[in-house]
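User: I'm writing a short report section on ligand binding and want a predicted complex to refer to. Could you take this sequence and 6-O-phosphono-beta-D-fructofuranose and write out the structure as tokens? A short remark afterwards would be nice.
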Amino acid sequence: MTIKTVGILTGGGDCPGLNAVIRAAVRKGISHYGYRFRGVEKGWKGMLECLWEPLGHEEVSGILPKGGTILGTSRTNPYKVPDGGDIVLENMKRMKLDALIAIGGDDTLSVALKLAAAGAPVVGVPKTIDNDISNTDYTFGFDTAINIVTEALDRIHTTAESHNRVMVVEVMGRHSGWIATYAGIAGGADLILIPEQSTSIQEIVDTIKMRHDRGKDFSIVVVAEGVKLDGDEYTVQEGGTDEFGHVKLGGVGQLVGDVIEKETGFETRVIVLGHLQRGGTPTAFDRVLGTRYGIAAIDLVQGGDWGKMVALQGDEIVALPLERGVGELKRVGEELYDISRVFFG
Ligand code: F6P
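Assistant: Sure. The structure tokens for the complex follow:
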């Protein structure tokens, strides 16, 4: 089949580096393969509703340093709509798409996998600031996020020290503690709580007390939003679940802060970094990684390698079956967490 028109969509939470992927795929697709591009708007919603815009040199010009996604995004799951999969396949024809590049995390890529299994010419690019996609060492957006959190921790340090306070910093990480662990190590956290490691309330309190017993009069605690205290439930905000069944997390930092203040008597403040971690310009690392993923994705299209996704392994960009990226998440291992543990208390 001759490929003439390629669609690109971005799904799920936005992430610095998405525009680098779009720009790279479009630039190489036009200059090397003579493709025409259609930017599918708002993720899978755009495929259900035929929302698209032309994507050419002009549209991708100047977007490399821009955060977010010029295509817009959503958490729409087409398989939640009756006949949603068939509608997407039908709309691919209506939009004259000979190929589709889906850029997203576990949820977006799981939809791409189902479509590819139904015969659609789809390839995937992994994306999430959480860095928890299986079989890829890093996703773009993660480096930007950990730099933002590290800078925040540096700033929080000076005010914590001046006021002799415990500062609890809640960071993103729904199922995994990559952001908390990397930024916590880089920012010199005195305790890091992540979903992969259950830490009891007693251990939290004992760690802070131990630190203060050895003469320190301030502490920095980093908590990933997906931590379950004492093996309990997630701490969630109002608002039900999204179309992929995810609850809106948030609030575990406050619980940790309340316990620490009550049990230790040390004055405690809580900060939720929230979407600050996802906004703004990507780091150089994320721009390069996004560019490499975009180039590799358009090469997959040219090769007709449907049902594959690009991934970083070591310093190489490889192509994997989409199944290898979805389903099971990549979690923080003991070895890395043990390094952070050396500095607790
Ligand atoms: O999936 C990435 C992520 O950043 C999670 O860490 C976080 O729980 C979620 O997105 C929040 O996204 P939103 O507020 O856009 O639903």
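A remark for your report: Residues 142-163 form the longest helix (22 residues). Residues 48 and 90 are 9 Å apart (CA to CA).
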